[in-house]
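User: Predict structure, ligand OEZ.
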Amino acid sequence: CVLRQRQERTPLQRALEHVLKKFEMRDPQQFFAWPVTDNIAPGYSAIISHPMDFCTMRQKVEENQYGSLQDFISDFKLMCTNAMQYNHADTIYYKASKKLLHAGLKLIQPDKVGWLLGLVP
Ligand SMILES: COc1ccc(C(=O)NC2CCC2)cc1-c1cc(C(C)=O)n2cccnc12
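Assistant: Predicted complex:
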């Protein structure tokens, strides 16, 4: 997951970066900061067909690969549901991903997201 230096950003990119920072703050242990590897999670790549993590999301924002907030939220949900699929419910990762998903979706609820969509014409 390579991050290039900052280029010119569209209003959507700036808004997504803002939301991404808020999401990342809800992952203090940084379990979701980087791609999960097979050596820390045996068999991960055979079980999870579409891995996702915050660094990859940041890369996609920087490369303007998200056409909308919804595309971005889909990757956030994918990241959390991957963790609930691979990890058993009694693990710290499953519990962290469930908490992160709920906290993240609360952050972008319509009543709270007005300020955000104000940034995007
Ligand atoms: C980038 O992923 C990680 C980075 C660091 C850590 C980590 O610090 N784990 C320590 C807490 C007890 C060992 C765990 C993970 C990790 C995330 C995950 C996810 C997200 O499924 N995971 C699954 C099984 C084993 N490790 C992990």
